[in-house]
Amino acid sequence: MLTGQIAILMSFEDAIAPLTVINTLTKGFEGTDKLVFTGSYLDGSLQDAQTTKKLASLPSRDVLLAKFMGSLLSPVSSLARFFDGAKQKIEETGKATVGDLATTA
Prior knowledge:
single chain; mainly alpha; two-stranded antiparallel ribbon; 4 helices
């Protein structure tokens, strides 16, 4: 697996981050001298080139956590916008409650 010129990447916190960085850098290379993944060693097991390439295309752990948190907060944000809109409508119409808005609709 390690014939020719090789590079070894190590990370002690995020196993995928170095692969992602190198994958991003290799997109800028042109020609036949392009950097190619031959394999990886993750969580005690040796991964082949195809699996390594798939892992390299994943976003980093921080990006995945941010997307996950955004999806969790989305319903809360929508609810907050609804309440803000209801408050503004109550103030505009001079009504006392949201129930009073429903009776005029």
